[in-house]
Amino acid sequence: MIVPVSQTGQMQASLRLDRARLDGERIIELCISDPSAAVPSCPGWDMAKLLGHMTTVWHMLAIIAETQPTGFPGRDQFPPRPETGAEEAGARAALDRVDQAMRALEPGTSMWSWATTQSSDFYPRRYHLENLVHRVDAEQALGLASEIDGDEAADAVDERFVEFVHLREERPAGSLHVHRTDGEGEWTFAVVDDRIVVTKQHEKGDAAARGTGADLMLAVWGRGGADALEIFGDDALVDEWFSLCR
Predict the structure, then answer these.
(1) Is 1 helix (H, G, I), strand (E, B) or coil?
(2) What is the per-residue pLDDT across 115-151, written as a single tens digit (0 to 9) for each?
């Protein structure tokens, strides 16, 4: 069990990085075991492409942590793609690099990000949750059950809505309340003066979705259907909000 994230979406960075490392190693192991297996949650991808994506993302996050730029790094800052047959070694090198870079970050340092949080605290969380979700992708591709910690899952729901949804142009026609049933976690999402506003308390929405942290995460991230949730009100409104997260 991870230290509870409560309503803050934050947890101790060392715990995040330990979990991210384990999930990263799991992703590599599964992708190498069957590179041609289709990844249902990522249409058009097989496991080889998933591994290539993770290798690129790990290098990108490492570059940002190492150089603290004011925008996305250019392609010239990335190492060459691994040659055929060297994909596993390339992925492990990228995972080692990002692990070291994240552990060297000073918490609370002002830093650019492409999301809401403009500090170094954004990056261990992003690395952790990217690995969590794509570990689930790899397990789904091979028909394996996924163990998902409820607190980590709630954190993934929180990150998606708090950090990214406001960047989308779409504005749903009503408010949504989301309630986690296996621990702490409540959110209400509404549009106020064309801004998306998130509150973390019990409020009535025009629609509501209730479920475990894991089921909420899978639905919000498009890795599982809303049929696992208890829905109140307009199903289409729930879909509108969840679609902003994908």
Answers:
(1) coil
(2) 999 999 999 999 999 999 999 999 999 999 999 999 9
Q: Give residue-wise pLDDT tens across range 8-43.
A: 345 678 899 999 999 999 999 999 999 999 999 999
In the chain, domain spans: 13-141, 152-243
Q: Tell me how far apart the alpha carbons of residues 40 and 118 are, in angstroms, rounded to a whole number.
A: 33
Q: DSSP 3-state assignment of 115?
A: coil
Token pair for residue 95? 């995972």
Closest CA to 147 of 235, 77, 218: 218
Question: Which of these, 189, 187, 246, lies nearest to 222 by C-alpha position?
Answer: 246
Q: What is the pLDDT of residue 10?
A: 55
Pick one of 3.30.1050.10, 3.40.50.1820, 1.10.10.60, 3.30.70.270 as the CATH number of 152-243: 3.30.1050.10
Architecture of the 13-141 domain = Up-down Bundle (1.20)
pTM, two decimal places: 0.93
110 CB-contact burial (10 Å; exposed 0-12 / middle 13-18 / buried 19+): exposed
Q: Which helix (H) or strand (E) holds 58?
A: helix 47-67
